[in-house]
From TrEMBL:
The lineage of its organism: Bacteria, Pseudomonadati, Bacteroidota, Cytophagia, Cytophagales. GO terms for biological process: siderophore transmembrane transport. Belongs to the TonB-dependent receptor family. It comes from Mangrovivirga cuniculi. One of its GO terms (cellular component) is cell outer membrane. Pfam families: Plug. This is TonB-dependent receptor plug domain-containing protein. PROSITE patterns: TONB_DEPENDENT_REC_3 (PS52016).
Amino acid sequence: MFKSLIRINFLFLISFFTMSAQDTEEGDRDLFDMSLEELMEVEIYSASKKAESSFDAPLSSTVITGEEIIASGATTIEEALRLVPGMIVREESNGNYDVHVRGNESLPPGNFTFFTENSLTLVMIDGRRVYNYINGGTFWEALPIGLADVERIEVVRGPSSPLYGPNAVSGVINIITKQGFSNSESSVTANVQGGNKGTVIGSFNALKRLKNDKVSIGLSGNIETRDRDHEEYYNWWTGEYTPRSELVNYNNGNQIEDSYGWFEEVEMAKERLGVNAFISYDINKDVNIDLKTGYQNSVSQSAFFENFYSVLGDRTSESFYIDLTSKIKGLNIQASTESGVQDIARGSGFISTMDYNKIDLNLDYSFELGNLSLQPAFNYQQATYSDVPYIEPNTIGLMNAEQQLSNYGFSLKADYKLLNDKLRLVAAGRLDKYNVPDDVYFTYQFISTYKFNENHLIRAVASKSNRSSFFIDSYADYYVDGQVDVAYVGNRELLLPTMNMVEFGYRGKLSEKLILDVEAFRTVFENAVDFQPTEFYNSAEGPIIEFNYFNSDLISTQSGVTTALNFAPSDKIQMRVFGTVQKTELENYDKKETGINPFTMELPTYNRVDQENKRTPNFYGGMTFNYRPLDKLSIYSSFYYMSEQFYRHERASTSEQLGTTTIDPVTTLSIKASYEFAKGFKGFVNARNLLAGEKDQFGFADRIGALYLAGINVNL
């Protein structure tokens, strides 16, 4: 079925590609056609919810253009984020990544695998939330778009809930597509490449401006297939990488059987397919309507849900979305819906498949009163998940019900300029009413910037944001019969995790060839959700262990500095060097010392300690070097580094040696060489992870080696 969909998708794409190419007028856009200052003045919307120069943005933020992503050779959107300061990007298996803004991951430490997922960063496509509400985070492989769709990626570092609502806790990643970018010209973009490890990647985007100059239509599609570096798994029982047949359940000591569904496709890392369509109508200069729709089908083998055998597992997703946006003078309207089915633990002995539907509505209006800009906004979010259609007699689901999470929020942002526009004051506040928990939360953002002249700007920020509830946290109702019955129970009264931040920053154009960006931040994260056995008792049917979700007393305090230096010594060379130094201190961490004793019915024991969270590397960053020795030849090299990390898994409660690992420093070097053999057509060779050395970057996941590719880029 998957391969048939690929064939149909490509036939459709190729025909549209050919049709659109006939009328395009623009050739390939090149990074070297822009000065360093122009690159730093690229427009950004996400930092303040209004279009402005990225140099003037009031928050710590970075824009990476689609041209640079293609030039860099990044094979996925996640990998492209290694080009952005303040990003921690670990590869779990070939093409599957763990992405965090500044860190605060795996809290509390020493818990189950699903606590490693980044639930603190809001990811959007053209302002449409693609956040996952099962257990938080983003299913990156389930994004319907490909690299050819990307106009730019805007990354905002720091709490941003006052602008975007819950889950914009550590930051926001907004992927702006060519469909969502106002462009009067027709265009065709394609990126196709293949290489070792069974890797085939292709994406196409074709936009056509019709003759009346009021209507634009577009179509895009993407495919990706990848194999793992090897077919072994880290075995929790032995502490070694072994074949599937030798895996042992660390919870009960039973060896996996051939009849078990776990790890159904041992060699597979990722398979995905997406197709998108777009139409835009400019009624007049003040009114326009955009409609986007798309479909995706994906499966990946990555770290997400606990399976007791190894850190990796399969998850699948199939979904369809509709996104309608309209601008009527100062009024912005966005309404979107997404429906689909996800299996978060394919092959498990329980029902892990759920139907879901998400609805989002955003309304905001901007008006000017002299130097004061006001932007009131209303937002409604609703998500419904159900495993009922898949539950049969003698089967067990995670919720065994249809459940709903929703919230509506009102916000107001005021933006005031004075002293001849040198001083800028921004204040934003938002009230959100949630159905789970049944409570109201207030978030805020206070910002001041001072622009000494066109070359130097300083800023100060104080902000607070919160996460939302998730379905598993809130509605888990999982019960397994055995010698000892096990119950997983959700909690609808959980306090929402929150983050407070204070930050100071500086941007400076030190010369025409040198630009510096520095940000110093301090965050405090509280109300982390924990999941532990809290009761062990006898019933008429026998002993029962009850696991519950609750708010821990853990407090995570992070202090750090991120620096980025952009340098263009000539019109043939562009460089960027960036890095983050940070330290994260944990207070009131209940470190699990012993596990459950089923014979004495004793619960785990804990030792409350204060310690450093070494899961977040103390230093991470990178360097890019873009060189054009000839007009038609360009070479882009990128270097990414993470210092030593420490990962503690739930397994540590029964075996500290087998459940903890020190991850050696990760160093990756990637190089892409491109040659334009015809106008708008480039052939290239691409090498990724050249210095990775087949090392585990995540903790108990795959050992990642080098990836070699060759392909063609088209930009007409």
